[in-house]
Amino acid sequence: MDIHPDLAAITDEELENLLDSANRVRECYRVLEKGGLNIVGEVLKGQGTFYEMEHYPKGDVFDRETRSQYYYHAHRPDSDEHGHFHTFLRVPDEDHGGDRTMHFVAISMDAWGYPVGLFTTNRWVTDEQWHSAEQVISHLGEFEIDHASPSWPVNIWITHFVRLYRYHVAGLLEARDQAILNSGLPLGEILENRDFEVLSHCPVDLNAWQATLVRECRHRSLSLHG
Predict the structure, then answer these.
(1) What is the pTM of this model?
(2) How many domains does the chain have?
(3) 46 in a structural domain
(4) For residue 35, what are the domain limits?
(5) Is 199 domain-assigned?
(6) How far apart are CA 165 and CA 91, in angstroms?
(7) Residue 226 lies in a domain
């Protein structure tokens, strides 16, 4: 599916923030490419043989201050992707105490280490504590990995990539909930149904999205340099 954010509903400040995130994403690519590196290669560096279903880096990446978390893995042999990142926020577990993960979105990566799509998953895929689209969307701005391990460029990239595409992610989350509603099954049943795995997805094109943001900034006579 294609997601087309309503630019008219985005404030001037938000528009400038989106463009800033696009520039930060490109800067991460620039510094990695100068060394012949890429996002996926950085995450897999020093991790040994790459196995399907294993989390990389081992133990995941977690920022204790922001409670943001991510990992990379692969388990979709029939797709065109090399693997994907899962992004989360740790939230209190109201039923059992402690905390559980709130899944934001997965980022599909190609064999060259660049993003090609976004998708949402059913609850059983990531063993998350289920939250409605409305609940997840209200937390999207909180995702941030603000430390240097295992790779500073990767952490900056994933933080700003989620920010850059947060309106796309919101649309995917709403489509996810609609797919669940359309199934006609009780919520508890559908969330554990192995026939329902990827519930919504869309391609991403950094060049196209950034160009759209630049055009809108120029239309509003906003600064392109902050």
Answers:
(1) 0.94
(2) 1
(3) yes
(4) 7-219
(5) yes
(6) 22
(7) no
